[in-house]
Amino acid sequence: MLLNKKISVWYFIREIKSQILFIGIFAVVIGLLDMLPWFRKISLPLNIPALLGTAVSLLLAFRTSQSYERWWEARTVWGAIVNDSRTFVRLMIQFLPVGEEKLIKDFAARQIIWTYALGESLRKQPFSDKVKQYLEKNNISGMNIPNALLDAHSRQIKEIAVSKGLTDFQQMQLNDMVTRLCDSMGKCERLKNTVFPRSYSILVHILIYVFAAILPFGLDDSQLAVEIIVTFLVPIVFIMIEKTSIIMQDPFENRPVDTPVTSLAQTIEINIRQMIGEQNVPLKKENTSYYEM
Fold this sequence. Notes:
There is one protein chain. With about 290 residues, this protein is mainly α. The chain has a domain at about 70-195 and about 260-280. Helix content is about 70%, strand content about 0%. α4 runs antiparallel to α8, α4 runs antiparallel to α9 (about 200-215) and α5 (about 100-120) packs antiparallel against α7 (about 145-165). The mean pLDDT is about 85.
């Protein structure tokens, strides 16, 4: 997630450097063609490229809105994961009898690992050493590791409901928390696996290039440099807006604009370890970069 300091403009420029080069060549070629005698006879009212530019602007506004909605939904879901993780451990501390600190720590450790495993699986990264060691130690495996960890939560809740004498209401409360965590996991997987229609991007790109192609024929032919600059700058602005939407629409791709799942998992770990009374809990280091992951 981009922080509100030291934001790198070069990150966005690197993302569209190939389009910048293409549009630059395109603008020069179209500008020179417009100076040829046969093309100089072609003159379009400026209203035509203006109308097309308006259509592109509306499409980009919709695209940006939908992309931000996906990004914000991912951040909202992970906000719920932070709260539900704290609440789950708090209920364990409240419901289990005094002297069951080891059992509480088992649930706390599993919940911490679940948050890391979920973030890493959404980004399709190899599991970190912390997650691998826990999975090996507890013989947890499967195609969907976060779901397997929630299954372990459910099994152990069923066991302690009998062995520790939990009431039906207490068991229901704990199962409800597991259900909420599962719902959040499902929402993240939906955002990860539902792609934005490719045909929409193709349509926007075609309209941008058509706009760039007809724009010089609506401008004054006496100033070639101005034609080329305008033909270059306006489509580049459109492409930058679209590229921003594209990189924002997928919030779990391990990029600077991602939902900061690793940072949130670290926050959850610190909070939970403090809740169960662990000493010397390491605090998060202040981020000095222009983004956090």
